[in-house]
Amino acid sequence: MKLIPALLIVGMFAVSGCSKEDKKPETYSAELVKKAEGGDAKAQCDLGFCYYEGVGVTQDYKEAVKWYTKSAEQGNANAQRGLGRCYYKGNGVAQDYKEAVKWYTKSAEQGNAKAQNNLGVRYFTGVGATQDYKEAVRWWTKSAEQGNAGAQHNLGNSYYNGKGVIQDYKKAVRWWTKSAGQGNVIAQYEIGSCYYKGEGVTQDYKEAVKWYTKAAEQGNAKAQCDLGIRYLNDEDFTLDKKEAFKSITKAAENAQKALEKLKSK
Questions:
Q1: pTM higher than 0.85
Q2: Last residue of a domain, one of 151, 171, 190
């Protein structure tokens, strides 16, 4: 199961809210604007989020950057992360990976789990920062220990591939399992593969099917295809040609959609 760096970015920008990380930001309102204009850092961050996502107001990336910046300069960790995102994606501001890393770092150093995950990705890929696998692992560990599913997945990848840490399949499975338990579809697929191959865990085809199925039900084409093939070819799997056909058909449909997307670009 060779993993590629692109997979590490899964969940990187899943949430961009600016209240506490586990709560939704305040909805756009005249009162929110008044508080933001009065210098309230949290309100400024929430207002930046509203403009960024177009929640309750017309989407406006430049306004989002304006309010994120005001809040970030007051030390609001979520605004710092949001501003980092704007610079990384070039939304509302000229794209600048180094500036993105600067703001991710400020946020991450305050303990923001999502920023820590994002910063880990930047060190792993070497985009905006000097490539450093050990530094990537350091930030992913901090984020993963706070329960961030993306970081848990990325940390599992690092242990599986021996990037920035000594290769350890058991630790890879441990972190993937935590991520998969939160619904990370790629982690679910990877755990299924580990159980199928007996890497980091005792080989267990039933457990492999369980995780492949979870990933397949979320639309993962690779899991759908592998699940179908396993049903058809493996003596240890319960032979069910209808299920196999269904899984492979779903995988083919997803592949066709992907091809059509590519053709339209």
A1: no
A2: 151
